[in-house]
Hints:
mainly alpha
Amino acid sequence: MKNLLSSIKISVPEKIFLKDPESSDLGKRIIGNSILLIDEIGFDNFTFKKLGAKIGSNESSIYRYFESKHRLLLYLTSWYWAWIEYQLVFATSNVPDTTDKLLKAIEVVTQTIKEDYDFSHINEVKLNRIIINEYSKSYLTKEVDSENKEGYFVIYKRLIKRLREMILDVNPKYNFASSIASTIVEGALHQHFLKEHFQSITDCNEEVTPTRFFKELTINAIKSK
Length: 225
């Protein structure tokens, strides 16, 4: 899978950015260092001025790629979900049994992330922490409906629809395939957050992973009828 992934360009909806950051060394440094800085200080404290100081570039140069830090967050989250989607597709493409395929897909979207050296300018482990801690800030806005119409969340929704189809392959009569598919993706982020910060209100720990929880939850739910 790694050899295949290394030849793939992760595609993000073009309306999110003004200039493709993958098209230049500066753009890649903006992406790579924004991940490091947001992971360090949080999205609320993150500014283009601070990022410019970190990469040794004018703040105005960053605005040539993104019109706001919100758009930058949309880019980072879209890149992440596209990266997860590619892994899901490759991990499940040669799995004939529908239940095994669904379980493998759940594993991909809920697992603890390891760094992928095929994308040297992006630290996926730190990006994953940003997704866990900050992803909701990309859509809990007044502009969410208009941004949704513009296609900013198309990759995220496509990933959930892939899970939905796998659930229906296991049980075509299950009535809540979309709901449980979105619960798996969003719930995994929440359980990872609870595991790190509120251990008293989750059963996930070093032995019990979110992956194990969502595999059991999903199979019990869709095969109960």
